[in-house]
Amino acid sequence: MSKVIIIGAGPAGLSAAITIAENGLDVLVLDEYMIAGGRLLGQLYEEPNGNWWNGIKESQKLYEKAVELGVKIYLNTPVSNIEKIDDTWVIYTNTETYTTSHLLLATGAAEAPLPIPGWTLPGVMSVGAAQVMTNVHRVKPGYHGVIIGVNVLSSAIAMELKLAGIGVECIALPKMNKVTKESGNPMDVMNSLLHVSHMAPSTFVKLGSKLMKNEFMKKLGISFFPKSGVKMWDIPIMLRKAVIEIYGDGKVEGVKVATISPTGEVIAGTEEKIGADFVCIAGGLYPLAELAAVAGCPFYHIEELGGYIPLHNERMETTLDGLYVAGNITGIEGAKVAISQGITAGLSIIHNYGLSNQEAAIQAAIHHIEQTRKEAFIQFHPAVKEGKQKLKQHWENHRNSKKLEILS
Amino acid sequence: MEKEMIICRCEEITYGKLVETANTYNCTSRELKLRTRAGMGYCGGRTCRNMVDSIAYSSSERISTEITLKYQPPIRPISFGDLGAVER
C-alpha cells in the first residue's frame, strides 16, 4: 500500500508529488503516456518579457526534482478503473493493482473533435496530436497543412508548426452544424478571440481588440473581414471562410472552403480548393474526468471551465473521502495554474494525513492559485473566475444539503 | 454529404441518423445513445461522446447537474488476458 497515489504525471500531478515528498510521505505517480509532463510537453511560446517557455524543459525539471525526492513514477501505465473498498482506494492498471488511502486525480484534459465531411480520412488529426508529433517526437505531421478551428490553442500550435518548418496554408472555421455550433460562427469566434487580445502575441488580435470595443464595430469588423484572412506569422486566419469538406483518395489531399456570412451560413458558388497533406482539427479542450465519474463524484457542467467538472473545494478535495483533484480536470487553464493547484492538493493531503498542520500553507497556496490565474498568459475562457465561483456555490449547497440530511 | 458523415466510428453512426433521431424524439443524450448505439462501441465513446451530447442538446435542454453519458470501467482498452487470465 502506498501512502499517496497520483494519477497523471503532468504539471499538476508532478507538483503535488514534489510537495508531498518534500514533507516526507512516499508517493507513487502513474501515467499512461511514455514521457512525464502531460500537455505541458507540447508547449512552446515566447513570453512578453522575451523568455521562451519550453514545455519539454519544464516537464524535465519537474520530473527530475520528483525523482530526486524519491517519488516513484510509472509511465506507460494506463489506469482502467478505481473503486473504494472499505477505507481504501483500489487502482487498477492493465497488469497491477495498487491501493492507497489518499488518491489524487490529475488526469488533465482531452481534445474535442469538430466533425466535418471527410474527417475520418487518414491525415486528419487533432491539433494537439500535430503538436505532440512535432514538439515531442520531432516528426513532421506533413509538409503543408490546414487547421480547422480558430482559437487560442490552434493559433499557438500553428506558430509552433511554423517554427518547425512545417507549412500551414490557413486557419479557417469549420462549417457550422449541430456539433460545431459557435466554433463555426464568425461573430462568436471573434468574441472569443477578443478576450485574449491583451496577451496573445499577435498583431492580428491586438489590432482587433482596439477596433472592436462595441457591437457595431464588431459587426462591421466581421462584415468587412478580408475574405482571404488576416495574416499572423504569415498564416492567413480566415473568419469568413469555412471548411465544408476534407477531400482525398484514401488520404488527405486538401480541403474545400466556402465563404460564409457573418452568421456562418455558407454562400453558394464560393467554393474553392486548398491543397494540403494533413489537416488539424481544433475543437478545444475539455476536462478528462472519467475516473472521477467512475468513482462516483457528483458533477456539474460549467461552460466557463470547459465541461463537466467533479465537485471539489478550494483545497482540491472532492466530496469523497481521500479523493482529490488538481489541474485541468478542475477546469481548462494553463500549466502554471495547474502547478499551483497541484501544490495545494499536495498540502491538503499532508494536512489530512495528520502528519503536520498545514492550514496556513494551504490558505497561502489557495491565494497563490488565484494570483496565478489573474496573471495567466493564456486564458482559455474569459470567465474562468465566474466558473470557479459557480462551482464554489455548488459546493456550499452540497455541504448544506448534507448537514440537513444528518439533522433529519 | 454532411448527412453521411460518420460521428461514432466504432458503431458507424452518421450525423444524419443522430440529428434525425434527436429531432424525432427530442431526447436526452442518453436516450440518443440508446436509440442509435452511438458511443456504445469498443472505445467507450471516447471519440464521439461530446458530439452526441451536442447533437442531443440542440433539440433538448442540457442537464447540467450530472454526466448524462455514463462512464463505465474499464475506461481504457484492456486485454482479456490482463483482465482475468487464470494460470494453468
Describe this structure in words.
The complex is a heterodimer of chains A (408) and B (88). Chain A is α/β, with parallel strands linked by helices and 408 residues long. Chain A contains eleven helices and 21 strands. In chain A, strand 19 (299-302) and strand 20 (307-310) form a beta hairpin. Chain A starts with a strand and ends with a helix. The mean pLDDT of chain A is 91. In chain B, helix 1 (15-25) crosses helix 2. Chain B has 88 residues and is mainly alpha-helical. Chain B has helices spanning 15-25, 29-36, 49-56, 80-84, and strands at 6-8, 13-14. Chain B is elongated, with a radius of gyration of 15 Å. In chain B, strands 1-2 form a two-stranded antiparallel sheet. The A-B interface holds A 32, 78-81, 83, 92, 94-95, 110, 112-113, 115-120, 175, 177-179, 181, 244-245, 283, 286, 289-291, 293-294, 298-302, 307-308 and B 1-2, 4-7, 9, 15, 19, 22, 46-47, 50-51, 54-55, 58, 62-67, 70-76, 78-79, 82.
Largest sheet of chain B: 2 strands, antiparallel
Cα(first) to Cα(last) distance of chain B is 54 Å
Coarse structural class of chain A: alpha/beta
Question: In which range does the helix fraction of chain B lie?
Answer: 25-40%
CATH C-level label of the largest domain in chain A: Alpha Beta
Count of alpha/pi helices of chain A: 11
Strand content of chain A: 25-35%
Measure the end-to-end span of chain A: 38 Å
CA-based gyration radius of chain B: 15 Å
When the domains of chain A are counted, the total is 2
What overall geometry of chain A do the principal axes of the alpha carbons give? Answer: globular
Number of domains of chain B: 1
CATH architecture of chain B: Orthogonal Bundle
In round numbers, the mean pLDDT of chain A is: 91
